[in-house]
Amino acid sequence: MNQSDSIIEAAQRYDIVEIINKGLAYAIIIAGLLSVIFIFVGGISFILSGGQEEKIKQAVGTIRYAIIGLVITVLAVVIVSTVGKALGLDIIKYIDFGDIINTVTSIGDGAGSDSLD
């Protein structure tokens, strides 16, 4: 059994609505995490700019766009939640970081155990 078989088996355990919900939840969480990471990267770049105007502009731009990305991510959660409720999808219940870690770990464990056999 290879990794694609385990992914197919995992997908068969969920209905299409649940797969869409989980996919949207993962995308929103990843976008939020990337925004926060880029805010830190911009801050570190700003600190390490050494007063050079070009580097400061670049760092401020990174921070600005990361904050815009974070705002868009929050708005996406609100919009997706509102549209989802209208369509019968409940995206908010799937945005659980612990559940996402468990899912990724279970997929990783399934693939890892197959390669050891």
Rg measurement, Å: 19 Å
Structural class: mainly alpha
Poorly predicted regions are 113-117
Q: Describe the global form.
A: elongated
Distance between the termini: 10 Å
Number of structural units classed as domains: 1
Multimeric organization: single chain
Q: Helix count? A: 4
Number of strands: 0
How can the largest sheet be summarized?
none
Fold and architecture overview:
This protein is mainly α. The protein has one domain. Helices cover 83% and strands 0% of the residues. It has 4 helices and no strands. α1 (3-12) crosses α4. The radius of gyration is 19 Å and the shape is elongated. The model is unreliable at 113-117 (pLDDT under 50).
Keywords:
mainly alpha; disordered C terminus; 117 residues; single chain; 0% strand; 83% helix
Write the layout of secondary structure elements.
Blueprint: H1 3-12, H2 16-47, H3 53-87, H4 97-116
Helix pairs in contact: 1-4, 2-3
Quick description:
This protein is mainly alpha-helical and 117 residues long. The protein has one domain (14-111).
